[in-house]
Amino acid sequence: MKTVLAFGDSLTWGYNPETMLRHDFFDRWPNVVGKALGHRVRVISEGLNGRTTAFDDHMVSAERNGVKILPTLLASHQPLDGLVVMLGTNDLKRNTGGGRVFESRQGLERIVEIALGFPYQRGYRSPKILLVAPPPFCSTTEPDFSLLFGHAKDESIHFRSAVTKVAEEYGVAMFDAGEVCETSPIDGVHLDATNSRRLGEALVEPIRALLGSDDDQSA
């Protein structure tokens, strides 16, 4: 069996913009992927609302800095064959990443460096990495989310180019979520159930390709 860690924020956790709770289990994109790939692949869903690539948020009780928590996750879930990272949305808050995709790109670079350079237990190697560019934001009239992300709607369009640059620099795979799904106008940043499932369905083949053949196991 191969193991994939889906590392992300509320889009991976499955935040439902309609209810402000969580999507049903099989509406969350990592579980859509896991179901499609079958019993030979285990997809671990590791999403957290508000998670950033590398920036602190001192107003919450849980650690949201992805760079700080990733080493623990790599250690606890090893051996990993694949790591799928979809982060960046929360970096565009002014109180965390500063509101620019440039800082998000730098944080994502650090995420990749940690995953590639982590001291895995002897006999295990670093997982193959797939970076997923978050979908661009859309306009919303929801007051809180408009205050949090409204300034960054145009900036979010640059996720694709930023994530592409990181993927090319480190020789890892890349997928643009904006090609297959779109954010909900209810809050401008999250995915409704249809779009969450659509993303999962679109990621099945890229993740299958990432993992390679059944004989390509961790050494």
TrEMBL record:
Question: What CDD domains does UniProt report for this protein, alphabetically?
Answer: SGNH_arylesterase_like
Cleaved signal peptide residues: none
Q: Which GO terms describe its molecular function?
A: hydrolase activity, acting on ester bonds
**Superkingdom as given in the UniProt entry:** Bacteria
Name the InterPro entries on file: SGNH_hydro, SGNH_hydro_sf
Any idea where the SGNH hydrolase-type esterase domain is? Answer: 6-188
Write the protein's name: Arylesterase
Q: Name the source organism.
A: Fulvimarina endophytica
